Amino acid sequence: MPSPLHRVLAAWAVHAFTLTGAIWATLALLALVDDRPKLMWLYLGIALVVDGVDGTLARRAEVRRFAPHFDGVILDSIIDYLTWTFIPALFLYRAGLLGEGALGIALLLLINVSSMFCYANTRMKTGDNYFLGFPAAWNIVALALWILDGGIAVNAVVVLVLSLLTWAPIAFVHPLRVTRLRIVTIIATAAWILASAALVVSHPVVDARIAAVWAVSGAWVILVGLIRTVGASATNRRAKVRAAQVEPDPEPLRARRS
């Protein structure tokens, strides 16, 4: 059994690992300012991997028990806002993907403000570890809009729809924590990350085979959430039907009348 000191050191090592996200965020922002988008995506990609595994490490190290005075959840939320939302949104604006003038600023503000209702939502996750509502994954969206280059009108519609979906009762899968179809989802996520890296390196040239892997793996991750959403809706409808079919007990009514 590890000694208490080793457990404390392990807990703080996990916190230090999470803290590297602030380093990657800073380097990504500097790369963005220097107009080096590929380098920015490299740093954001590293931050994405760190964010994907640090929660699992934190639970195994029992950081709340062995480093109780340092809140890893708050730390993770701050870094996530920078790397998942703030920097990708600035990239969309600086790259001209949101339009010029008032339109671009309005869409930028919409992304940054609507995302707050995700990070501050105490019911952001379901009991089975799905995200409820669009989880402010603007790094993924920004990458897709940059690669696909569908035009400002399309980009504006995407931003508006996803901002509204922040409040929608739609499930989005957490690739590592959701147990349903976990192995397939992890494989799809890994394939998407590798395909994304290849597309960033080759940008603006797009290899059709890599793009197909990127699209199919990304679609799978979205599909798992949609399956969960439809299943939950059907379960709720059945529960309401059963509740309506149950006859009320007349005894309490007689008791109230008496």
Category by helix and strand content: mainly alpha
End-to-end Cα distance, whole Å, is 66 Å
According to DSSP, the number of beta strands is 2
| Percent range for β-strand residues | under 5%
Describe this structure in words.
This protein has 258 residues and is mainly alpha-helical. The longest helix is centred in the last third of the chain and has 38 residues, at 208-245. It is built from ten helices and two strands. It is globular, with a radius of gyration of 22 Å. The protein has helices spanning 4-33, 37-61, 63-66, 72-94, 101-119, 138-148, 152-165, 182-202, 208-245, 250-257, and strands at 131-132, 171-172. It has a two-stranded antiparallel ribbon with strand order 1-2. 75% of the residues lie in helices and 2% in strands.
Secondary-structure map:
Blueprint: H1 4-33, H2 37-61, H3 63-66, H4 72-94, H5 101-119, E1 131-132, H6 138-148, H7 152-165, E2 171-172, H8 182-202, H9 208-245, H10 250-257
Antiparallel strand pairs: 1-2
Helix pairs in contact: 1-2, 1-4, 2-4, 2-8, 4-5, 4-6, 5-7, 8-9
Short account of what is shown:
By secondary structure, the chain is mostly helical. It has helices spanning 4-33, 37-61, 63-66, 72-94, 101-119, 138-148, 152-165, 182-202, 208-245, 250-257; strands at residues 131-132, 171-172.
